[in-house]
Design brief:
Blueprint (H helix, E strand, L loop, with lengths): L1 E5 L7 H15 L4 E5 L7 H4 L7 H11 L4 E7 L7 H9 L9 E7 L7 H13 L3 E2 L4 E3 L15 H16 L1
Parallel strand pairs: 1-2, 1-3, 3-4, 4-5, 4-6
Amino acid sequence: MITILSATNRPNSNTLKISRHYLQLLEKLGVEAKLFSFEQLPHDIAFNEMFFKRSAAFQSILDEYIIPAQKFVIIAPEYNGSFPGILKIFIDATHPDLFRGKKVGLVGVSSGRAGNLRGLDHLTGVLHHIGVFVHPNKLPISSVSALLDHDGNVADENTMKVLEKHAHGLIAY
């Protein structure tokens, strides 16, 4: 099973729109996949979930999306030249053993030109530190709002192709 992590808690984000497209792509390819949006995180995650104070709500997220996954796709927007702090909090609140030895594909999303490549590099360092195998094809998606139609669907043919190539690469990884 592959879990897609839409790694921002910003409501109705472009990151979530790309994440939904990726989920549809995996399902079309016959892969069991789930999508977890960080909008669903407990609001007090930075305090209640840290240092082994585990709430039932956070444990159910781990039980459904993290523990059973063999692979992950992290779709991370660019926040201040890196990845969102909420993603780091999520990683810090989750015991490293739940990620260790698993594989991940990274997709960066930005309204600018670099597609969050710098943030994906920062995230790669954190993931390597906790023993996660990062697929070498890190996919930057730049000028994301120009690639979506008015309903929030990916409307750009080239973006659809690179997302599909990324998904195939992760499945084979």
